[in-house]
Amino acid sequence: MTIELDLQIACNADNLPSIEQFQLWVDTALSSYNKDFELTIRLVDIKESQSLNYQYRHKDKPTNVLSFPFEVPEGIDLNLLGDLVICTDVVSLEATQQNKTLIAHWSHMVIHGCLHLLGYDHIDDDDARVMETLEIKLLSNLKITNPYQET
Asked: Largest alpha-carbon pair distance within the chain?
């Protein structure tokens, strides 16, 4: 299994995880699928996040992570999973507000986004329970505590 990650840093931010950390989180999220994947993670500022969130979700505010799954046309053999767009400022702010370490929150956002690319969602309670259970399991493999626990 090979997971090819294209990391794009499109903002000025401090304390970003390393490419190796991003790769570890992506590998963790996708490891049980035992197939090759390609994906892009783009790190953006508030302005770009808000613009994309408005354009694609009709929500006029920045958000932590946006997932854009790639729909492979029939008859084409591509391993392109899609793109994640992560707002560095929102992730930092949420980590502080939720009393989490920055690395723990980054790992959660990458795994959360990868699961969206795989088709998981949290629109209704049953789907949320399935997705959150998987996130908790994957994060525990990285020695990161349950991100949904109240602190």
From this structure: 49
